[in-house]
Amino acid sequence: MKFRLLGPFYVALDGRKYKKGDVVISAEDLSKKFANAFELIEKDVEVEQFYKAPDIPEPSICEHSSCKPMADVGGDAAILPSPPTEIEGQDVTNLFSVAESVDMKVFLADGKYTVVDGTDGKIMKKGIVGTQKVKKFLKQYAA
């Protein structure tokens, strides 16, 4: 479905930012989910025809004890594999700027946030309701 944003701004879960008047494509009925914030423009629009995730090449991943430097970052860095987590929900870490600086990840499922240690995958806090409470929780770990 295609909607026009009536409110001042909107940040989608994938991090895309929209301002008043922008057109937003969504499989969900945003005019019902966010009352008075969106105007339905066109109902019979397939989301896939407007948004296709870009192809992202696989980065070189190190072997734990023998990390190989990545040439495109000056040869001094390596990408470590992400620790396995059993967290359900969408990774929304990019919506919380402080999360990366404290090496944590944030997931959203059923309207509740879960904060996970980005190093070992340990659940730090589960069931947080509201972005302000997530920010407050993360800030206590900031230096």
Secondary-structure blueprint of this entry?
Layout: E1 2-5, E2 9-11, E3 17-19, E4 23-25, H1 30-33, E5 38-42, E6 90-91, H2 97-101, E7 104-109, E8 112-117, E9 123-128, H3 131-139
Number of helices: 3
**DSSP strand count:** 9
Strand content: 25-35%
Q: Name the helix and strand elements from N-terminus to C-terminus, one letter apiece.
A: EEEEHEEHEEEH
Low-confidence runs (pLDDT<50, min 5 residues)? 49-54, 60-85
- Biggest β-sheet description: 4 strands, antiparallel
Q: Can you tell me the overall shape?
A: elongated
The secondary-structure class comes to alpha+beta
What value does the average pLDDT take?
74
What does this structure look like?
There is one protein chain. This protein has 2 domains: about 1-50; about 85-140, no CATH class. It contains 3 helices and 9 strands. It has helices spanning about 30-35, 95-100, 130-140; strands at about 1-5, 10, 15-20, 25, 40, 90, 105-110, 110-115, 125-130. The strands form 3 sheets. The protein has a 4-stranded antiparallel beta sheet. The chain has a 3-stranded antiparallel beta sheet with strand order 4-1-5. It has a two-stranded antiparallel ribbon with strand order 2-3. With about 140 residues, the protein is α+β, with helices and mostly antiparallel strands.
